[in-house]
């Protein structure tokens, strides 16, 4: 049985990945690309990172749900649309059936009990901190999906989060209000009396909630990750996530309707258990949609290589020299500075692998990041003073600490002498060579290719 499953899995893998996609027709390319993305999503889920992130967001959501609604409620109250909060919450928890109504009443009751005068300045600050921490957790989850290791700067993070929290609900409820107002216009009502137009209007009325969900998901995929996400990729991921959300909503509603046995077992905890499961499913779907958007935008990551980056020492050293050489060339010839994405595309490696080397060089002061968006990189020192041995040493010593380094290993004379001989040979061969020598020694065609790739990245940004 195990051999049969393994054989079937191998056949499926060969069918999806066995042929080069360039040799296929357009319909075949679309079908195989879709199957490859589905296969990669299943692999990512099986590796556990997506599910782990979803579980972490469930916990944070439980803590931040009431403060988040309270903050949004106070803003909406100023615009006179706060009465729509409860219907919206009921819609989000609709798959929970009667349990959703019960949870909504409890949450709204908690919100009504929040009194700013009683909380005081510290309490209000903690209220906002809880909400911002949820947004930060969400950003970390999406950054992990997009292979981004850094959060936004603190000031930008705080302003962006508050913008979403304060203005997002107003825009959402305004869109709902405009939609409802259009439906109540006399002209629209008279037009709906025509059978064909009435049928179309009914279809549109059913599509509007779905389109609003797609729009909300698209906004999340574009705004939340700390990287540039194209609208096309975000929209494709949003449509896929919205379809999954609708289908899972119907399935979950059926599950809740037949969950009397769980109520008998868990009693008062049944409602909380059902809420936890639905929150987990919702976050899982949202993160899966983000992964789909990532693979749509980055075809270079559509492969069977593990997400865990394992670079050999030789690969690290050559990549570091190549990165510094490319940055040095453009700096010397006053060409557009390289971004991380541009470097990764030029070297035909993943941005996460390239990011590891760029981060090591940046920490050693050999590269300096600009304040551009997306950031670009410049040499940290003058080209004629930046020695090649420092580049190699920066890569070779990455990860060492005062408590974990070659000096902390047992001292053996034979091994230590050989090690010092190797170190001396590397330093002697590179002692007098600088980044300027390496940058100017590159063939002209390589420089022009680098310039074209960097310019394309800058233009896209």
Q: In whole angstroms, how far apart are the ends?
A: 52 Å
- Strand fraction band? under 5%
Arithmetic mean pLDDT: 78
The H-and-E topology, N to C, reads as HHHHHHHHHHHHHEHHEEHHHH
In percent, how helical is the residue content?
A: over 70%
Contiguous helical run count: 19
Main-sheet strand order equals 1-3-2
3D shape: globular
Radius of gyration: 28 Å
Total number of beta strands: 3
Q: From the helix content, strand content and strand pairing, which structural class follows? A: mainly alpha
The low-confidence runs, each spanning 5 or more residues with pLDDT under 50, are 444-461
Characterise this structure:
This protein has helices spanning 2-17, 26-47, 49-79, 85-92, 98-113, 116-145, 154-184, 186-192, 195-223, 231-257, 260-266, 269-297, 313-332, 340-347, 351-363, 388-396, 413-430, 435-440, 444-460; strands at residues 338-339, 367-369, 376-379. With 461 residues, the chain is mainly alpha-helical. It has a 3-stranded antiparallel β-sheet. Helix 9 crosses helix 10 (231-257). The model is unreliable at 444-461 (pLDDT under 50).
List the helices and strands and how they pair.
Elements lengths: L1 H16 L8 H22 L1 H31 L5 H8 L5 H16 L2 H30 L8 H31 L1 H7 L2 H29 L7 H27 L2 H7 L2 H29 L15 H20 L5 E2 H8 L3 H13 L3 E3 L6 E4 L8 H9 L16 H18 L4 H6 L3 H17 L1
Antiparallel strand pairs: 1-3, 2-3
Summed up:
This protein has 19 helices and 3 strands.
Task: Fill in the keyword field for this structure.
disordered C terminus, about 450 residues, mainly alpha, 3-stranded antiparallel β-sheet, about 0% strand
